[in-house]
Amino acid sequence: MHVVLMAGGIGTRFWPRSRQKNPKQLLNLVGDKSMIRQTYERVKDLTSDDKILVITNQELLEPITQHLPELPKQNIIAEPFGKNTAPCIGLAAAIIRKRASMEEPMIVLSADHLIKETDKFQETIKTAVKHAQDSDSLVTIGITPTYPETGYGYIQRGEPLAVIGNRTIYKVKTFAEKPNLETAKLFLKSGDFLWNSGMFIWKTSTILREFAEHQPEMAEGFDQIYQAVDTDKMEDTILDVYMRIKSISIDYAVMEVAKSVSIIEAEFTWSDLGSWEAAYAISPKDKFGNAIKAENEVVIDAKNNLIYAPNKLVALIDVENLAVVETEDALLICRKDSSQRVKEVVDQLKRKKLTKYL
Fold it and tell me: Rg for the chain (alpha carbons), in Å?
């Protein structure tokens, strides 16, 4: 089987630590290893290094090579520019088709998600691969919601399709975009809705067939890339296709319109770590609920704060629910529950042409 790690993100939600040349997937937000390194170590026992592909951007080619020295250099592929997840996945499918076969199982993962219980993760992937091969369907992994999250998409599961071992595979009934709070509460109450994890499993032939049916112009571009893979025309062909291909997510392009889509429920802990508040939720904390990474600290009547200032003494007095993140050239201070708005800071930096902080 081939594993595809999507690693082209530019990292706006973890500013000021994440920058264009050092985005979230290269940061050690949890533990001592980068997110992409943790992802690689989670999947390396599923297949061989020559069957792990990383799709990224030109700026990150060298850093990712340093983070993943085990991978062949030709397996770290740069998109000429980002066009969302559908072109990224189609590019990977074209490469796998050329280097392996149309029937090769293909696992698509984000390089910057947090997943615990690696053994349960691997078992879920293997079960999903078997179902994808047996049913010729698109398979995704859903996460059991634990609270009415408004920042995730949801998937409603339908009737059971198969039982593999002790795991049940369900038909996908519908996809739902990020809901408002009241709708999210209804989703949670129904028990039929799972968080959309953005993890996908299918045969290479299956996803290319779905592209051909629902996105024929894109499929034509992927055919052109397939012809050029591992030739001296590969880079120019990818650039030519990307100049013309539309920017669209795999959910919109294929998943929401395909007829045979299945879902398996995760039995492992998952987070897409989409904000500093999410990072706080999974960080170790003191008895007052403070998650502090500092050279030293003094805490006086302060609770539930996230502090990142690894080279400083930090003193907290009478503050609650703050996120404070220091880097060499920038300082972020916000309420934890406003940390989703950090990308607005990045937008303003762009408008003000303060590029040295991006």
Answer: 21
**Long-range contacts of range 319-326, CB-CB < 8 Å, 24 or more positions apart?**
323/276, 323/277, 323/280, 325/16, 325/17, 325/276, 326/16
* Cβ proximity of 196 and 155 under 8 Å: yes
Q: What is the DSSP string of 203-272?
A: EHHHHHHHHHHH-HHHHHHHHHHHHHTTSTTHHHHHHHHHHHSPP--HIIIIITT-S-EEEEE--S-EE-
Is residue 111 a contact partner of residue 226, using CB atoms and an 8 Å limit? Answer: no
Return the closest-CA partner of residue 109 out of 239, 214, 198: 198
| pLDDT tens profile 317-332 | 999 999 999 999 999 9
Domains of the chain: 2-271 (3.90.550.10), 276-357 (no CATH)
Unique residue bearing structure tokens 């592909």: 53
Q: What is the mean pLDDT of the chain?
A: 95
On whether the pTM is more than 0.90, the answer is: yes
Amino acid identity of 199?
M
Q: How far apart are CA 189 and CA 156, in angstroms?
A: 12
Q: In this predicted model, what pLDDT tens digit does every residue of 279-321 receive, in sequence order? A: 998 899 999 999 999 999 999 999 999 999 999 999 999 999 9
E strand intervals along 318-353: 322-326, 331-335
Q: Supply 223's token pair.
A: 């055919």
CA dihedral 325, 116, 124, 97 (to 10 degrees): 50
